[in-house]
Amino acid sequence: MFSPQGPTLRELAVQALSSVERGYDLLAPKFDLTPFRTPDSILDATAEALSGLGPFGAGLDVCCGTGAGLGVLAKVCDGGITGVDFSAGMLAQARAAHPAASFVRADARALPFAEGFDVAVSFGALGHFLPAERPALFEGIFRALRPGGVFALALGSPPPVTSVAYWAAAGFDLVMRVRNAVWRPPFVMYYRPNQLPEVSADLRAAGFTVRTVPGIVLATKSDQPDRR
Protein backbone atom coordinates (compact mmCIF):
# COMPACT_ATOMS: atom_id res chain seq x y z
CA MET A 1 0.00 0.00 0.00
CA PHE A 2 1.04 3.59 -0.57
CA SER A 3 2.04 5.65 2.43
CA PRO A 4 0.03 8.85 2.98
CA GLN A 5 3.33 10.65 2.45
CA GLY A 6 3.87 8.85 -0.88
CA PRO A 7 3.18 10.13 -4.38
CA THR A 8 -0.29 11.41 -5.25
CA LEU A 9 -2.34 9.93 -8.09
CA ARG A 10 -1.53 13.00 -10.17
CA GLU A 11 2.20 12.60 -9.53
CA LEU A 12 2.03 8.93 -10.52
CA ALA A 13 0.18 9.82 -13.71
CA VAL A 14 2.81 12.39 -14.67
CA GLN A 15 5.57 9.87 -13.96
CA ALA A 16 3.83 7.15 -15.98
CA LEU A 17 3.58 9.45 -18.99
CA SER A 18 7.29 10.25 -18.85
CA SER A 19 10.27 8.23 -20.02
CA VAL A 20 11.61 5.59 -17.64
CA GLU A 21 14.54 7.83 -16.67
CA ARG A 22 12.46 10.98 -16.20
CA GLY A 23 9.72 9.06 -14.42
CA TYR A 24 12.15 7.74 -11.82
CA ASP A 25 13.79 11.13 -11.42
CA LEU A 26 10.37 12.47 -10.45
CA LEU A 27 9.45 9.50 -8.26
CA ALA A 28 12.81 9.27 -6.46
CA PRO A 29 12.09 11.46 -3.39
CA LYS A 30 9.00 9.37 -2.52
CA PHE A 31 10.01 5.99 -3.99
CA ASP A 32 10.67 4.32 -0.64
CA LEU A 33 7.13 5.24 0.43
CA THR A 34 5.59 3.17 -2.38
CA PRO A 35 4.98 -0.57 -2.86
CA PHE A 36 7.57 -0.47 -5.65
CA ARG A 37 10.44 -0.66 -3.18
CA THR A 38 11.73 -4.22 -2.79
CA PRO A 39 10.30 -5.73 0.44
CA ASP A 40 12.71 -6.32 3.30
CA SER A 41 11.81 -10.02 3.25
CA ILE A 42 13.32 -10.38 -0.24
CA LEU A 43 16.38 -8.34 0.68
CA ASP A 44 16.94 -10.44 3.81
CA ALA A 45 16.49 -13.70 1.90
CA THR A 46 19.07 -12.59 -0.68
CA ALA A 47 21.55 -11.61 2.01
CA GLU A 48 21.08 -15.00 3.66
CA ALA A 49 21.60 -16.86 0.38
CA LEU A 50 24.77 -14.91 -0.35
CA SER A 51 26.14 -15.19 3.17
CA GLY A 52 26.72 -18.89 2.62
CA LEU A 53 28.83 -18.15 -0.45
CA GLY A 54 30.92 -15.24 0.87
CA PRO A 55 32.33 -13.18 2.31
CA PHE A 56 32.91 -11.22 -0.86
CA GLY A 57 35.21 -8.34 -1.63
CA ALA A 58 33.71 -5.61 -3.82
CA GLY A 59 29.98 -5.57 -4.58
CA LEU A 60 27.84 -4.00 -7.31
CA ASP A 61 24.12 -3.13 -7.12
CA VAL A 62 22.81 -3.03 -10.71
CA CYS A 63 19.94 -0.56 -11.20
CA CYS A 64 20.37 0.39 -7.56
CA GLY A 65 17.51 2.87 -7.37
CA THR A 66 17.41 4.42 -3.90
CA GLY A 67 19.89 1.84 -2.63
CA ALA A 68 17.94 -0.98 -0.97
CA GLY A 69 20.30 -3.55 -2.47
CA LEU A 70 23.33 -1.73 -1.14
CA GLY A 71 22.23 -2.76 2.34
CA VAL A 72 22.43 -6.39 1.22
CA LEU A 73 25.93 -5.86 -0.17
CA ALA A 74 27.06 -4.16 3.04
CA LYS A 75 26.19 -7.37 4.91
CA VAL A 76 28.13 -9.74 2.64
CA CYS A 77 31.06 -7.64 1.35
CA ASP A 78 34.22 -6.68 3.16
CA GLY A 79 35.32 -4.39 0.32
CA GLY A 80 33.77 -1.37 -1.35
CA ILE A 81 30.21 -1.36 -2.65
CA THR A 82 28.98 0.47 -5.75
CA GLY A 83 25.56 1.37 -7.06
CA VAL A 84 24.83 1.97 -10.74
CA ASP A 85 21.65 3.50 -12.13
CA PHE A 86 20.70 5.81 -14.99
CA SER A 87 18.33 7.99 -12.96
CA ALA A 88 20.11 10.95 -11.39
CA GLY A 89 17.21 11.40 -8.99
CA MET A 90 17.41 7.83 -7.70
CA LEU A 91 21.19 8.07 -7.35
CA ALA A 92 20.81 11.23 -5.28
CA GLN A 93 18.56 9.38 -2.85
CA ALA A 94 20.94 6.41 -2.72
CA ARG A 95 23.93 8.66 -1.99
CA ALA A 96 22.08 10.22 0.93
CA ALA A 97 21.16 6.81 2.34
CA HIS A 98 24.57 5.16 1.76
CA PRO A 99 27.26 7.84 1.98
CA ALA A 100 30.08 5.28 2.21
CA ALA A 101 29.18 3.66 -1.14
CA SER A 102 30.38 4.68 -4.59
CA PHE A 103 27.98 5.51 -7.41
CA VAL A 104 28.08 5.51 -11.19
CA ARG A 105 25.43 6.86 -13.51
CA ALA A 106 25.17 4.54 -16.50
CA ASP A 107 22.79 2.51 -18.63
CA ALA A 108 22.76 -1.07 -17.35
CA ARG A 109 22.67 -2.30 -20.95
CA ALA A 110 26.19 -0.92 -21.37
CA LEU A 111 27.87 -1.28 -17.97
CA PRO A 112 31.31 0.40 -17.85
CA PHE A 113 33.03 -2.25 -15.69
CA ALA A 114 35.50 -5.06 -16.29
CA GLU A 115 36.24 -7.71 -13.64
CA GLY A 116 36.01 -5.22 -10.79
CA PHE A 117 33.49 -6.97 -8.51
CA ASP A 118 33.09 -10.23 -6.63
CA VAL A 119 29.32 -10.11 -6.28
CA ALA A 120 26.47 -8.28 -7.98
CA VAL A 121 22.79 -7.97 -7.09
CA SER A 122 19.71 -6.52 -8.73
CA PHE A 123 16.24 -5.97 -7.32
CA GLY A 124 13.01 -4.98 -9.03
CA ALA A 125 14.63 -3.79 -12.26
CA LEU A 126 14.29 -6.66 -14.70
CA GLY A 127 10.85 -5.55 -15.89
CA HIS A 128 12.42 -2.41 -17.34
CA PHE A 129 14.27 -4.48 -19.94
CA LEU A 130 12.61 -6.03 -22.94
CA PRO A 131 13.48 -9.70 -23.49
CA ALA A 132 15.72 -8.73 -26.41
CA GLU A 133 17.70 -6.45 -24.06
CA ARG A 134 18.42 -9.07 -21.39
CA PRO A 135 21.49 -10.51 -23.17
CA ALA A 136 23.29 -7.14 -23.13
CA LEU A 137 22.37 -6.65 -19.47
CA PHE A 138 23.62 -10.09 -18.40
CA GLU A 139 26.76 -9.93 -20.56
CA GLY A 140 27.64 -6.60 -18.93
CA ILE A 141 27.21 -8.08 -15.45
CA PHE A 142 29.31 -11.08 -16.48
CA ARG A 143 32.12 -8.75 -17.60
CA ALA A 144 31.85 -6.73 -14.39
CA LEU A 145 32.46 -9.78 -12.20
CA ARG A 146 35.79 -11.33 -11.44
CA PRO A 147 36.17 -15.07 -12.15
CA GLY A 148 34.18 -16.94 -9.50
CA GLY A 149 31.92 -13.94 -8.90
CA VAL A 150 28.21 -14.36 -8.14
CA PHE A 151 25.20 -12.47 -9.48
CA ALA A 152 22.07 -12.69 -7.28
CA LEU A 153 18.79 -11.79 -8.96
CA ALA A 154 15.53 -11.72 -7.01
CA LEU A 155 12.94 -13.44 -9.22
CA GLY A 156 9.85 -14.73 -7.52
CA SER A 157 7.78 -17.64 -8.78
CA PRO A 158 4.90 -16.68 -11.11
CA PRO A 159 1.54 -16.63 -9.35
CA PRO A 160 -1.01 -19.29 -10.34
CA VAL A 161 -3.43 -18.36 -13.10
CA THR A 162 -6.32 -18.55 -10.63
CA SER A 163 -4.82 -15.89 -8.34
CA VAL A 164 -5.59 -12.19 -8.14
CA ALA A 165 -1.86 -11.45 -8.46
CA TYR A 166 -1.69 -13.22 -11.84
CA TRP A 167 -4.50 -11.19 -13.32
CA ALA A 168 -3.26 -7.97 -11.74
CA ALA A 169 0.13 -8.46 -13.42
CA ALA A 170 -1.52 -9.39 -16.71
CA GLY A 171 -3.73 -6.30 -16.52
CA PHE A 172 -0.79 -4.06 -15.69
CA ASP A 173 1.22 -5.37 -18.63
CA LEU A 174 -1.74 -4.85 -20.96
CA VAL A 175 -2.17 -1.26 -19.80
CA MET A 176 1.55 -0.60 -20.32
CA ARG A 177 1.45 -2.06 -23.84
CA VAL A 178 -1.52 0.11 -24.76
CA ARG A 179 0.18 3.15 -23.20
CA ASN A 180 3.38 2.51 -25.16
CA ALA A 181 1.47 1.98 -28.39
CA VAL A 182 -0.16 5.41 -28.23
CA TRP A 183 2.28 7.55 -26.22
CA ARG A 184 5.92 8.55 -26.54
CA PRO A 185 8.42 8.28 -25.00
CA PRO A 186 7.81 4.67 -23.97
CA PHE A 187 7.83 3.57 -20.34
CA VAL A 188 9.09 -0.01 -20.25
CA MET A 189 7.82 -1.91 -17.22
CA TYR A 190 6.43 -5.39 -17.75
CA TYR A 191 6.02 -8.13 -15.15
CA ARG A 192 5.22 -11.23 -17.17
CA PRO A 193 8.00 -11.60 -19.81
CA ASN A 194 10.72 -12.30 -17.21
CA GLN A 195 10.04 -15.90 -16.25
CA LEU A 196 12.62 -18.21 -14.75
CA PRO A 197 13.23 -20.52 -17.75
CA GLU A 198 13.86 -17.64 -20.16
CA VAL A 199 15.95 -15.63 -17.68
CA SER A 200 18.04 -18.68 -16.78
CA ALA A 201 18.64 -19.43 -20.47
CA ASP A 202 19.88 -15.88 -21.07
CA LEU A 203 22.16 -16.06 -18.03
CA ARG A 204 23.68 -19.32 -19.27
CA ALA A 205 24.13 -17.83 -22.74
CA ALA A 206 26.08 -14.99 -21.12
CA GLY A 207 28.45 -17.54 -19.55
CA PHE A 208 26.99 -18.06 -16.08
CA THR A 209 26.33 -21.28 -14.23
CA VAL A 210 22.83 -20.96 -12.80
CA ARG A 211 21.13 -22.39 -9.75
CA THR A 212 18.14 -21.23 -7.76
CA VAL A 213 16.98 -21.01 -4.20
CA PRO A 214 13.38 -19.99 -3.42
CA GLY A 215 12.76 -16.63 -5.06
CA ILE A 216 16.42 -16.01 -5.96
CA VAL A 217 18.58 -16.87 -8.95
CA LEU A 218 22.28 -17.34 -8.18
CA ALA A 219 24.45 -17.08 -11.30
CA THR A 220 28.16 -17.81 -10.97
CA LYS A 221 30.92 -16.75 -13.36
CA SER A 222 33.44 -19.51 -14.03
CA ASP A 223 36.55 -19.29 -11.88
CA GLN A 224 38.59 -19.50 -15.08
CA PRO A 225 39.56 -16.12 -16.58
CA ASP A 226 37.14 -14.80 -19.20
CA ARG A 227 38.87 -15.15 -22.58
CA ARG A 228 35.99 -14.38 -24.86
TrEMBL record:
Pfam families: Methyltransf_25. The keyword Repressor does not apply. Residues 60-149 form the Methyltransferase domain. One of its GO terms (molecular function) is methyltransferase activity. One of its GO terms (biological process) is methylation. It comes from the Bacteria. InterPro entries: Methyltransf_25 (IPR041698), SAM-dependent_MTases_sf (IPR029063). The keyword Transferase applies. This is Methyltransferase domain-containing protein. The lineage of its organism: Bacteria, Bacillati, Actinomycetota, Actinomycetes, Micromonosporales.
